[in-house]
Design goal:
Structural class of chain A: alpha+beta
Largest interface: A-B, 56 and 41 residues
Helix content of chain B: 40-55%
Mean pLDDT of chain A: 89
Number of helices of chain A: 8
Number of domains of chain B: 1
Mean pLDDT of chain B: 49
Order of helices and strands of chain B: HHH
Shape of chain A: elongated
Structural class of chain B: mainly alpha
Distance between the termini of chain B: 46 Å
CATH class of the largest domain in chain A: Alpha Beta
Number of domains of chain A: 2
Low-confidence stretches of chain B: 30-64
Oligomer: heterodimer
Chain lengths: 264, 64
């Protein structure tokens, strides 16, 4: 290290983890290798970065460069993902930078919760599942199944009746979305060790309303079961206009602490 | 699982990745702090996210 260098921390593993786990990946600066820095009962996954790239003055500008950020975010994940299936890894959020190894060791010793968090994760993977609803398709289906025609009946009474039916349909689509989201999350949670229902994100495409934004902590030997559960949901709800996107395995970013997230 | 095209799938994964790496994981005192409007993060993608990356509070080195 030179005075213009700093230490980037990706996450933590248990003390005694062989450094070989990370031998095949390079650091967030591709010219550097990964080093484990031990402190307390854990070890930080680190590499050297230059303050010319990661110093506070330059970093703000760098973060606004999409190509730079994408590359660095990918690199951060690649390092942590090298541990998947090998050992338990506790991911840190992007951007933990220290002035030297002694500061990293001090942080590890102070953070008594890191070792229990690693024990809790116990080698598990994170899988992401998002569910999307084509609301218009559901509405059409419900409408057809009730024989509601959007015909040209005129007159106040027919108009009021149609308004009432339309309102009823809207309510039914909402009720379907809620029950589908709950049923999906429940079945996925049952196939996982822990589950988080993150808030659904707004979609600009109305035919793709997000109804589920879940993260699931899954033991490596149960990953296939979990994938089959997602397939089962597609079979169950696919005809109702619901699609699922499964991503991962990820390092367990959503499970770094034991708090239960809010309901879907 | 999804019938999305490979290009779309790749896009989805990048969005998932950015959401996790920037928004989740253990946070430490002494980190840089990114304030990101969470709602905007995922559906609009990386470029808009960057427009909403706010202040960078301080660079670490002093965990205590």
């Amino acid at each position: 290290m030179t005075p213009t260098d700093a230490i980037y921390v990706y996450g933590a593993v248990l003390k005694g983890t062989p450094a070989d786990v990370f031998a095949r990946v390079s650091g967030i600066d591709p010219a550097t290798e990964i080093r484990l820095v031990e402190g307390g009962d854990v070890a930080a996954i680190t590499s050297v970065v230059s303050l010319e790239e990661f110093g506070s003055q330059v970093l703000e500008a760098k973060l606004r460069d999409p190509d730079w950020l994408e590359q660095k975010v990918q690199a951060h994940n690649t390092v942590l993902a090298a541990a998947l299936g090998e050992t338990t890894v506790l991911p840190f959020r992007f951007g933990a930078i220290y002035n030297g190894e002694e500061h990293v060791r001090a942080m590890l010793s102070e953070r008594a919760e890191l070792a229990p968090a690693l024990s809790r994760l116990n080698g598990a993977l994170e899988l992401g599942v998002k569910g999307f609803l084509d609301g218009a398709a559901v509405r059409d289906r419900l409408s057809r199944s009730r024989g509601i025609d959007s015909g040209d009946a005129t007159g106040g009474r027919a108009y009021m009746e149609r308004k009432r039916l339309e309102q009823q349909l809207d309510d039914d689509v909402r009720a379907f979305a809620t029950s589908c989201a709950e049923a999906s999350h429940e079945r996925l949670s049952a196939a996982a060790s822990e589950a988080r229902a993150n808030p659904p994100q707004y979609q600009s495409d109305a035919a793709r309303e997000m109804l589920l934004n879940g993260a699931y902590l899954v033991r490596a030997d149960r990953e296939d079961d979990f994938r089959r559960t997602v397939q089962g949901l597609e079979e169950r709800f696919g005809d109702d206009g619901v699609t699922y996107e499964l991503t991962g395995p990820w390092p367990p970013y959503n499970f770094v602490d034991g708090e239960e997230a809010e309901a879907p | 699982m999804s019938s999305a095209s490979p290009a779309l799938q790749q896009q989805v994964t990048l969005i998932e990745l950015v959401d996790r790496v920037l928004n989740k994981g253990v946070t430490l005192t002494g980190d840089i702090t990114l304030s990101v409007a969470d709602v905007d993060l995922v559906y609009v993608g990386l470029r808009v996210l960057l427009a909403s990356v706010g202040t960078l509070e301080r660079l670490g080195g002093e965990p205590s």
